[in-house]
Design a protein that fits this description.
This protein has 62 residues and is mostly helical. The protein has one domain. It contains four helices and no strands.
Length: 62
Amino acid sequence: MKDAEILAQYLGDIEMERFIALIQREPFDYTQWRKDIDGDESIEDISRKAVALRNKKSDTAG
């Protein structure tokens, strides 16, 4: 429950729900993903990359 509280505090309730839904839906190793993130990138850069990847997947799926 503490994890959810922290996520809600920093992301807000809606984004927390989206984050949890994404992790449960996508088959990937979140722990490894976190280790691979470049520490020099801003959260905005990481977010832009994630959105671009999501859009790329959406374009190829439809």
